[in-house]
Inverse folding.
């Protein structure tokens, strides 16, 4: 039997910096084998996802074979793309009879190849020289069919990788030109779609587009009352004004009739269009004070809330609407008063605060909180001053439990919002009502959870509040 | 009920094997027949002052082993058995143990201390034995020294066994007070003081609150530093070990003490005995570890809200610390390169220097260069070696801009030293340094190449020549070649190594045949280098790689010819099989990756598979991990053709899946099941009953290492993808398992980083299973079978989204599953999906993700949902 193992003291030997390659290398080799396996699993799942069999109930083999094909298909697709570009090249060069039909046919073939899978052979098409040909096909006076197909090809290319999107730069002036009123609406819509993709790629391309004057024609496309063109334009615009430079947003709100169109769409349009428009208002309110002021003046916040109240699929709009409101509420005192005074807003906010999904509640809490404070006046005391009547009104309407609920959440940002509001209640409610209200809603218990919380800010804040308002003296005067 | 066990215990330690065997059997029999009496007798023996020390000590050891074991499930059993024991017996045993702590016999006390801690480890978390700590601590000041020493020892072991949350803060305070008082220089008895310091080492984990209190912390730190200056070597050593532990546990509290600690450690590194000096160096290595972690984390996220701030101790101490470390490099041992386990001041100092370089980057270079320049050409080999070692150590950390010009000057010198230096030690370190140069400064991402057409040939010639040097130098030369090849990994269609490919392969194969290739793992280094050369090779050399196949096959064949092997030879054979199968795995993967090369390779497939099966047959109880991995690559290369090997191979697959003990083998086999599924597709169906049975068994076992479970879940997805709607019959087993695992992994509240990481890997596995099952059923007539499971899947997605602690991988897989639901179930799931948090918020978050692959998945999912809703 073994003797007592010497339970020696922990030895601290670490791996020497100078070591042989063997051990580490075989470990890496095995890890590499596992990584290769993961890649294969992923590409198989991706292939399965892309595989769509028109009619269900085929024999079980079909999807598998199709899935297998996808890998092989890549090189086949590349070849097809190159061939399509070649055909387009010769069609464009050919001036003879039926030349136009041949160009359209070649464009259509290229467009099909570029739409074939989720991973279209864009690179191959570009390498084969597609871009100059497509720009050529966008020339003024070309037949609509040709313009449409060329813009469609460009839309697909713009949806590709960043460097592929950038390849569109030579085509941008013509795409923008075809947004004008003289174009047929399918062509204009297709061009807007392509431009929206480009705008979505990043700030650099957005600036290129803006400098080429894309904003006005796109904004005008939004003016009619309905139709897919309006929706596409709205979507492209929302991509365009994303910022971070607020100039585009400010310019947009100045466009004649745009504010009217926004309110009109929010009031009357179908859900999908309203959603796109709501996105526009999100960016407008987030980036531009001017826009925010104008939106508030036109009661856009009420419209949004009305949407929320009547919408059949609430989820679609709630985050956008809540976001707009919180942007508005963070603004000037006048904005705050506008929101506060509109009858529909407050009850709905309170309703959302108690029932909505967590993220929405956070936005709503931020909105309500902001309604109650104003930036400190000249004496920069570093503290926000309360708008007391707002606070009293909101608390009387029963918003406190919603905030206390946020204090209890695991999300530190939300908890902080809750604590800050509670601080205002404790400090601001007249006649020392604050502490009693907080106690009644189990707020003390909620704060005590932070006694040993790892987040120092929250801990100090909560403990400070408990000490200050519920310290030894609390309750003596009752 | 106690029985006389003295003679049995003495016989169990007899030199006479048969006497020993008989005694061991009797003890075992006694234990099995009457556990309470057995344990009680042992505790009585341990407590009895009239018994010989040897029997008492063994009694304590057996008692200890009856309470704890290394294997988790065995440990669990022992704990349960102890808890079920009659309360009276337990209390009698415990009182014997406590009584023994005051025995005059040191071994008896020490053994009793360990057993008390084991019992405490079981009982305190159950809120039993509440009086233990109080009774240990009562009167501690009035105790005679030997009892005080035993008490402190017990407290130390107790802190090692029990988790901090099982002891209330009041008791922690009391323990620390007693321990720290015992450590102080006013304690006259060195044994007591040593026991106290060792106890503190284990108690540090309990001292969170005390380390947050400035006064208590100051006191503890003062006492530890004081002990580090003790005249007694053991006390100094234990005190430095505490400092090392404090460095990593309480890094953020160290600022006020760093000046003192620097003085103490510097003195120890320069003057103290080796064991103490090593710990003093280790202190700085640990500080480097902490700062590297903090700085890495800081660089990772721009928010900078990580909870620990970097105090830049290393940067501040740099000018004084580097010279001390450089001095240590001159204290080499003669034969340290031949001894794999060697560890001495020079090695520790160089390792620390490497960590310092990683911590401070460029700043270290001007502090080390003068040392290198001064020593590199000295006649004393120690100086040349130390200079080279210093250079090699600082190559990771500083920027290439800083290092490349220096390396360009040094490279020729190094190459010539590798061939001409008369000292092996210097050559060894030189070859290693070249490897580090190639590892960190050579590769496609570097602006200025170190290796150019002008010097490439010379470098390769020198390295190949060094492969004929003594084994340790040859091994390091292989290592340098390994990184040289790796640097050309993404070099494009044409590699600068192509002209030398054949020569390099030949040289490496020659190394594997050296008679002394077993020394210093030279053979392993040669094969792994060969693997890397093959892996990083280009199309140009594909034919040469193909020619390598029969060569390696022949090697493998030859190892299988040997007759009856001794167990030693068998182990060596197993190792060699591993190397050769690993090599074949890399070659198969390389050649299988493109259609042209695969075609040429397929002529060997039958023979290779035959060899792998013979390798499996060499082992009786288990399967060879490397062979299994190679088969995974082979399956991929063969595709559906692999079906012909399945009848013979299947039993080994099953054997691998059953291997709970060697969980890596199990894990590799699970992965291979996935490879086979992708290769065979629905031809794997006949084997699925067996495989599924085994996988489900694995999942419900608590013996299997937890790391295997995520891949098993992913594997369920692989199977479902392969067999599609035929997975129907497994749904009723697999789905509940996935569901309960999903519930367990939904929340991570309060878990540590490691647990969160594991939970995420578990979630990923579960989600991959869902993806596989959903996609497997897509377009089949049986999709409606999945509808009942959809609400739970959505709920799982919602709950992990709300939890906000997903890593990127889980996020991508999860958003994909949302799309799979829509894709497969179509309008059946439309409303359900629209009403879930994940469909809107989660999807939006993923759509705006900066991670391209998450965004891509999300875009597909958006499309799938749109289709499902409009359908």
């Amino acid at each position: 039997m073994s003797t007592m193992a010497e339970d020696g003291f922990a030895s601290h030997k670490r791996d020497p910096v100078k070591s042989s390659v063997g051990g580490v290398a075989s470990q890496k080799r095995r890890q590499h084998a596992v990584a290769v396996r993961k890649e294969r699993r992923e590409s198989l799942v991706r292939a399965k996802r892309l595989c769509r069999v028109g009619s269900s109930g085929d024999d079980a083999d079909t999807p598998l074979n199709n899935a297998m094909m996808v890998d092989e298909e890549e090189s086949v697709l590349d070849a097809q793309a190159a061939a399509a570009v070649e055909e387009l090249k010769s069609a464009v060069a050919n001036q003879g009879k039926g030349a136009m039909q041949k160009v359209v046919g070649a464009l259509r073939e290229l467009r099909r190849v570029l739409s074939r899978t989720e991973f279209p052979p864009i690179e191959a098409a570009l390498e084969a020289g597609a871009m100059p040909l497509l720009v050529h096909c966008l020339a003024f006076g070309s037949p609509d069919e040709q313009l449409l197909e060329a813009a469609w090809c460009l839309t697909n290319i713009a949806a590709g990788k960043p460097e592929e999107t950038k390849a569109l730069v030579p085509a941008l002036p013509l795409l923008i030109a075809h947004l004008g009123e003289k174009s047929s609406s399918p062509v204009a819509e297709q061009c807007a779609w392509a431009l929206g993709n480009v705008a979505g790629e990043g700030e650099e391309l957005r600036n290129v587009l803006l400098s080429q004057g894309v904003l006005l024609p796109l904004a005008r496309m939004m003016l009619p009352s309905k139709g897919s063109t309006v929706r596409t334009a709205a979507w492209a615009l929302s991509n365009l004004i994303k910022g971070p430079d607020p100039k585009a947003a400010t310019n947009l709100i100045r466009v004649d009739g745009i504010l009217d169109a926004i309110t009109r769409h929010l009031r009357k349009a179908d859900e999908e269009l309203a959603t796109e428009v709501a996105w526009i208002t999100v960016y407008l309110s987030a980036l531009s004070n001017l826009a925010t002021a104008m939106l508030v003046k036109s009661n856009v916040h009420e419209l949004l809330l009305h949407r929320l109240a009547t919408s059949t699929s609430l989820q679609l709009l709630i985050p956008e609407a809540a976001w707009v409101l919180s942007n508005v509420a963070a603004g000037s005192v006048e904005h705050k008063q506008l929101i506060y005074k509109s009858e529909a807003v407050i009850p709905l906010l309170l309703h959302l605060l108690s029932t909505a999904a967590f993220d929405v509640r956070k936005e709503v809490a931020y909105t309500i909180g902001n309604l109650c404070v104003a930036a400190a006046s000249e004496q920069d005391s570093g503290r926000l001053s309360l708008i007391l009547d707002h606070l009293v009104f909101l608390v009387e309407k029963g918003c406190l439990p919603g905030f206390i609920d946020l204090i209890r959440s695991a999300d530190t940002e939300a908890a902080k919002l809750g604590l800050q509001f509670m601080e205002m209640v404790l400090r601001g409610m007249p006649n020392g009502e604050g502490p009693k209200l907080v106690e009644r809603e189990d707020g003390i218990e909620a704060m005590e959870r932070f006694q040993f919380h790892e987040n120092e800010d929250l801990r100090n804040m909560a403990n400070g509040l408990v000490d200050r308002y519920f310290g030894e003296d609390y309750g003596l005067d009752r | 009920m106690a029985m006389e066990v003295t003679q049995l215990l003495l016989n169990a330690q007899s030199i006479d094997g048969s006497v020993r065997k008989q005694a061991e059997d009797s003890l075992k029999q006694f234990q099995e027949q009457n556990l309470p009496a057995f344990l009680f007798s042992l505790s009585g023996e341990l407590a009895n002052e009239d018994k010989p020390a040897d029997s008492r000590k063994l009694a304590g050891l057996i008692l200890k082993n009856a309470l704890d074991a290394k294997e988790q499930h065995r440990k669990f059993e022992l704990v349960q058995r102890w808890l079920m024991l009659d309360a009276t017996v337990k209390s009698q045993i415990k009182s014997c143990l406590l009584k023994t702590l005051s025995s005059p016999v040191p071994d008896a006390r020490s053994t009793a201390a360990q057993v008390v801690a084991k019992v405490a480890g079981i009982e305190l978390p159950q809120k039993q034995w509440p009086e233990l700590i109080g009774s240990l601590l009562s009167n501690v000041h009035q105790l005679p020294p030997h009892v005080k020493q035993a008490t402190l020892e017990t407290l130390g072991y107790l802190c090692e066994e029990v988790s901090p949350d099982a002891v209330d803060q009041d008791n922690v305070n009391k323990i620390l007070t007693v321990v720290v008082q015992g450590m102080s220089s006013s304690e006259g008895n060195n044994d007591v003081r040593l026991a106290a310091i060792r106890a503190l080492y284990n108690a540090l984990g309990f001292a969170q609150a005390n380390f947050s209190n400035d006064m208590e912390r100051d006191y503890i730190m003062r006492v530890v530093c004081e002990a580090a200056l003790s005249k007694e070597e053991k006390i100094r050593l234990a005190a430095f070990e505490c400092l090392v532990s404090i460095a990593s546990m309480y890094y953020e509290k160290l600022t006020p003490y760093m000046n003192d600690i620097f003085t103490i450690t510097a003195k120890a590194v320069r003057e103290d005995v080796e064991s103490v000096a090593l710990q003093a160096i280790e202190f700085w290595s640990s500080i480097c570890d902490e700062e590297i972690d903090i700085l890495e984390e800081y660089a990772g996220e721009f928010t900078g809200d990580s909870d620990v701030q970097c105090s830049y101790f290393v940067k501040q101490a740099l000018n004084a610390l580097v010279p001390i470390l450089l001095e240590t490099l001159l204290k080499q041992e003669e034969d340290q390169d031949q001894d794999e386990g060697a560890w001495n001041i020079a090695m520790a100092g160089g390792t620390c220097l490497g960590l310092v370089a990683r911590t401070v980057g460029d700043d270290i270079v001007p502090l080390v260069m003068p040392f290198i320049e001064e020593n590199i050409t000295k006649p004393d080999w120690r100086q040349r070696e130390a200079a080279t070692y210093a250079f090699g150590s600082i190559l990771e950390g500083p920027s290439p801009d800083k290092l490349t010009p220096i390396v360009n000057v040094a490279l020729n010198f190094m190459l010539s030293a590798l061939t001409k230096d008369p000292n092996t030690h210097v050559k060894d370190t030189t070859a290693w340094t070249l490897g580090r140069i190639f590892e960190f400064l050579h590769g496609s991402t570097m602006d200025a190449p170190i290796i150019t057409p002008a010097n490439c040939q010379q470098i390769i010639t020198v390295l190949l020549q060094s492969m004929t040097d003594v084994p340790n130098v040859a091994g390091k030369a292989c290592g340098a070649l390994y990184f040289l090849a790796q640097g050309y990994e993404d070099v494009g269609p044409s590699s600068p190594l192509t002209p030398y490919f054949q020569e390099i392969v030949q040289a490496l194969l020659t190394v594997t045949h050296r008679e002394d290739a077993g020394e210093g793992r030279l053979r392993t280094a040669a094969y792994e280098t060969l693997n890397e050369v093959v892996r990083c090779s280009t199309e140009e050399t594909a034919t040469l790689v193909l020619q390598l196949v029969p060569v390696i096959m022949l090697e493998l064949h030859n190892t299988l010819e040997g007759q009856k092997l001794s167990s030693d030879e068998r182990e060596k054979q197993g190792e060699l099989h591993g190397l050769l199968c690993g090599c074949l795995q890399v070659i198969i993967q390389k050649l299988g990756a493109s259609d042209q090369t695969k075609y040429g390779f397929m002529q060997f497939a039958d023979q290779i598979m035959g060899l792998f099966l013979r390798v499996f047959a060499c082992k009786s109880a288990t399967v060879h991990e490397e062979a299994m991995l190679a088969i995974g690559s082979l399956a991929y290369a063969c595709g559906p053709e692999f079906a012909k090997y399945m009848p013979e191979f299947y039993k080994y697959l099953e054997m691998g899946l059953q291997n709970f003990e060697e969980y890596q083998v199990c894990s590799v086999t699970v992965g291979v099941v996935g490879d086979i599924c992708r290769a065979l597709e629905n031809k794997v169906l006949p084997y699925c009953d067996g495989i599924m049975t085994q996988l489900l068994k694995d999942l419900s076992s608590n013996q299997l290492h937890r790391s295997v479970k995520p891949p098993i879940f992913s594997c369920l997805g692989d199977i479902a993808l392969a067999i599609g709607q035929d997975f129907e019959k497994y749904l009723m087993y697999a789905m509940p398992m996935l569901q309960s695992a999903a519930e367990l992994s939904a929340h991570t509240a309060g878990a540590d980083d490691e647990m969160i990481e594991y939970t995420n890997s578990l979630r990923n596995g579960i989600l991959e299973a869902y993806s596989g099952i959903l996609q497997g059923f897509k377009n089949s007539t049986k999709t409606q079978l999945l509808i009942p499971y959809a609400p739970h899947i959505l709920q799982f997605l919602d709950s992990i989204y709300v939890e906000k602690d997903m890593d990127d991988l889980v996020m991508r897989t999860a958003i994909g599953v949302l799309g799979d639901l829509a894709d497969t179930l179509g309008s059946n799931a439309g409303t359900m999906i629209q009403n879930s948090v994940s469909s809107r918020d989660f999807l939006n978050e993923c759509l705006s993700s900066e991670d391209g692959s998450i965004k891509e998945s999300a875009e597909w999912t958006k499309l799938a949902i749109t289709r499902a809703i409009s359908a």
User: Anything to note?
Assistant: The radius of gyration of chain A is 31 Å. The first strand of chain A starts at residue 373 and ends at 374. Residues 215 and 273 of chain A are 19 Å apart (CA to CA).
